[in-house]
Amino acid sequence: MGAGCSTESSAETEQPRFPPTQSVSIERTKSGKPSEEEAAPAPRPKLSGPPVEVDLKEVERDHGDRDQAARLDALRRCFEALDKDKSGSIDAKELKQYLFKTGVNVSHISDKAEELMRKMDVNDDQLISLAEFSDMMEALLTDKSDEDLDVWVAEVVFTASSRNVVGFGNTLGEVLQNLEFKEEQAKKIKTLFKELDRDKSGFVELHELRLLLGKSGMDMEQLSEEVLAIMAKLDKNGDNKVSTQEFYVTLSAIRKSLRSDEEFMALLDNVLAVAKAPEAATEKPALAEVLLAEDF
User: Fold this and answer.
1) Are 139 and 196 spatial neighbours (Cβ–Cβ below 8 Å)?
2) What does DSSP assign to residue 143?
3) What digits encode the pLDDT tens for the residues 207-264?
4) In terms of domains, do 167 and 203 share one?
5) Composition bias, kind Basic and acidic residues: at what positions (predicted)?
6) Domain range for residue 79?
């Protein structure tokens, strides 16, 4: 699927393309179209020095008092209730069984199951692992208190364990409904995350977030307050690293704050080019500006 096309005359809408390392304006007005050409490949710059150990106790977070072990245990119980055959993963058949019990119209079950699989299956193996499920749910449910999370889990577990249709509705689907990207957007976000995750740990850590600040990030000897502020926005569960799921959730909120798919793709193109060649970027990329300016 592609982004929608403008119906206005080209004379009124065509604007200069964004140079790969130029900052993109994120005003809430119609933006220019992103470049359709790929930036010339550049050597991947090395981040100097080992990962930096930083005390983040002073970084402002709004997670409240949480029992992280209890939250993960609750999500594990939820996963196990959905994993009917106890294989250690949730497949499309098990998603359909859950959706049937929520009362979803039979004619829509296959499409709904495919949607849930697409949103939670990060590695595209058509299975949802415990890690994929827990990381996605924790990122999406970060605003829930421990008690509210327990209630949510209880609803899903009760529905999944019931033999009949129950009245709670599609509790799982409702949480995931706001996490929506077009195919090209999802691919671009996945590419960007891999570019930022230089050590291939599966997470973007503090020293890697410097790439989001362009040349100023590469030149800094110590992590700045801006890097810590960006981590606080991206890191939903407070473990001081950013998972793929947390990255998706934040980018989904940013997408909704912009006026068009073209503007969102321009932002992704801009920050991807900066991440590939941060030493050439003299201004902060658009994503860093948005994360530092908005409350997501």
Assistant:
1) no
2) T
3) 888 877 766 565 555 557 888 888 999 998 888 899 999 999 999 999 988 889 999 9
4) no
5) 27-36
6) 68-176
